[in-house]
Amino acid sequence: MNKKTSILIIATILIIAMFVVIQPRPYGSGEKELSESGSNLSVSQIESIDSSSTSRIFRSYRGFIDDNRIECIIDFSCQNDSLFGYFTYTYGNNDTFKLRGTCENVNTRHGGPWLHFDVFDNRQVNIARWDYMYKDEEGVYRGDYKIAGRKTANPVYIVDADSNLFLDSNTRQCFQSPEVFTSFFSDNHFATGSNYLEEGGLILPLIKDNPNHSMDLLPKGLDLYQFNNCAGMCRIELIDVGTVLDSQMLSFSQWSWEGEKEISAKDYSLKFPKIDFEAYGLRYSYLYDENFVCIKSNNGSSLFLSISQLKSMGYYLENDSYFHIHKSPQIAFYPAVEINIRAKPNANANILQTTDKTNNRYFKVTQAADGWLEIEYHTHTYEPCTKISIEKQPVIKGWIPLYLLSENSENSEQELALYFDTTGCPEGC
Q1: More confident residue, 205 or 111
Q2: C-alpha distances out from residue 278 to 63, 73, 329, Å
């Protein structure tokens, strides 16, 4: 073999080797490249990795799986009823996962299709699924995240990365901006650690800021909302159905569940609990979202009020946890029934003590934790409403539930575990 032949053979081998190196890599190798690039996904990255991406309409999204932050590049355009994208966690090793999905074009209450994604790791193993995703009226994509082989699901919720929308990872609610989020919590009173959406509470007037403000607990001109009667075949939404008139009359301009056009707040059986010697509040049941609060009558009928309108009229929300914490120890709280005081805010935690049936002992509430109250169980110096001294018992520190479990219905109104008497004496004195 001469020198020229040897050179030719070597050159041929090099060309073949180069061809092998630069040819397109096997399907799925893109996930590894994205993983190594970190969590800052971009449309250009996707387009350079996946050849099919050039015909797709990708957008960047951000959000959470449960309380774990994620970043996404997804095509939601449902081309040929298919979906495609990637997401990565913004912590840990920044692994990136591929999404392949379908659009289920059926009539749904949210007014759009169900979106389903299968989740693949960098080995092309189907490890999880995003199920029953939909786009809500605020522009948030919501659904369930199910790990393969598990029955339980965690919420997944994302928004367009270019929007100003702010997602609260504690409650999975969306606010128009971080500023609106901050303002919402400064305008209203929600105890740290409480689930402000699910807790009930009081709607109160800012009397201290404006001594001349009306004492009406339902201000004149306040709009009343109820759900539209779409019978499951249209988008569910709250619509304006009436307003509050003078003399606390509720006037319905369209319709109501009761079929009445005009009814007094008293006859409607709205709840106005006494919270001080001569002060009352309007009880609310829960927050529908960051925009509306639900008030219920004693018969379970629901109305919804605009939180922003209440603010403009000089009213604010105060949830039950906040009320208990900030009223302690000025007033004494008593158990509505026998209550187990537990070592931790958990129904399975050790029982430290069960409350006695007398009113010789009372609760001081110190903080909240998602439906539980941290308390100190004290002994009165004297029997309430008397001058009879009481033997002091050791102070018990622990946790009790904020609400009692109802025996009537799963959908019944939440009943507080503690009560107090506005005269300073427990009930029955």
Answers
A1: 205
A2: 46, 57, 19
